[in-house]
Amino acid sequence: LAHAAATSPERRQVSAATPVDEASIKDDLALVADTKDVASQTSAGTAVAPLRPAQLAGSLLTLFQSSAFLRALCASDSLIAAGFVGLLSILNSFVMAYYDWRQGDLDACMLAVMAPATLLAFAALIRCRLIERLSAAAALYAANALALAGWTVVCLLPFHPAFLLGLVMVAPVMTTYPATLTLYAQRFKQSQLAQVQSLTSASFSVGMIAALPTFAYLFDATAQGSRAALPFALSYVLVALGVALKLHALSLDGPVHE
After folding, report:
1. Would you call 103 helix, strand, or coil by DSSP?
2. How far is the CA of 236 from the CAs of 135, 156, 160, 187, 233, in angstroms?
3. From CA 255, how far away is CA 258, in angstroms rounded?
4. How far is CA 133 from the centre of its chain?
5. pTM to 2 decimals?
6. What percentage of the chain reaches a pLDDT higher than 70?
7. How far, in Å, CA of 83 to CA of 65, rounded?
8. Could you tell me the CA-to-CA distances from 64 to 33, 67, 69, 139, 210 in Å, in that order?
């Protein structure tokens, strides 16, 4: 602008009578640029201003209280996590003490049983488009029901090591994460999805943290008979209650937010 003003015909005509202060023009342009920068920073700061901890806690509590589906889902995740993780945390010690397995035998067995089943479940989920054909809720319903049947077999492990094959029916539940996210998107507003995942993840963590010391206390390497089966019975009850709650949650139709 300063160069244009200095070289324009009008400028050449009036240059002798009215000299132009080019430094002043540059200062004005710099002031305009600074004003735009401040405005853009202020606008961006207002748009991404984070919630205060009290506001965030209040928002999570409001969402939790307003959604029966979310309450049932969180309780279900806590119970299932307690049952699954609790028993798995002592399973290696159990087979070593009860069946004289060596260190690593259980890991190899679980890998041989669960890896093919999980891959087949993923292939079926993608190839057959189960979520599109059945719905996310139906896919989760089937996977959780199958997992409960498989875990029932696993909990009979104190009677024979072959019951570990029940993990084949448990493995498909590990492929349901896409269906879970789809269900969240169907039941909640987009602005609530992060809060929903935070609450369900926290619920799973609570169940897992509570289960680890509980099952460690119940496990007795020298126990026989019904006393040795006590952790398995507790695990079955927790998982059964958790799956029942999840199936109940899946039966709740319609939007769960106001």
Report:
1. coil
2. 28, 10, 17, 29, 5
3. 8
4. 24
5. 0.73
6. 73
7. 25
8. 47, 6, 9, 24, 21
CB 172 within 8 A of CB 151: no
The number of angstroms, rounded, from the C-alpha of 199 to the middle of its chain's C-alpha atoms is 9
Under-50 pLDDT residues of the chain: 1-6, 8, 10-20, 31-32, 34-48, 255-258
Q: What does DSSP assign to residue 212?
A: H
Structure tokens at 165: 């094959």
The SS3 of residue 142 is: helix
DSSP code at position 189: -
- The full DSSP string for 144-169 is HHHHHHHHHHHTTTTT-GGGGGGHHH
In terms of Cα–Cα distance, which of 213, 128, 140, 217 is closest to 175? 140
Going by C-alpha positions, the residue among 182, 207, 210, 209 that lies closest to residue 196 is 182
Q: Please give the Cα distance from 244 to 258 (Å, whole number).
A: 26
Residue of 73, 79, 82, 75 lying closest to 208 (CA atoms):
82
Task: Let me know how long the chain is.
Answer: 258
The alpha carbon of 143 is separated from its chain's Cα centroid by a whole number of angstroms, namely: 17
CA torsion sign for 131, 134, 137, 142 is negative
Distance of CA 253 to the CA centre of its chain: 22
Q: Residue for token digits 């999840």?
A: 246
User: Distances from the Cα of 162 to the Cαs of 118, 123, 146, 186, 223, in angstroms?
Assistant: 19, 26, 18, 41, 20
Closest CA to 175 of 138, 128, 120, 127: 120
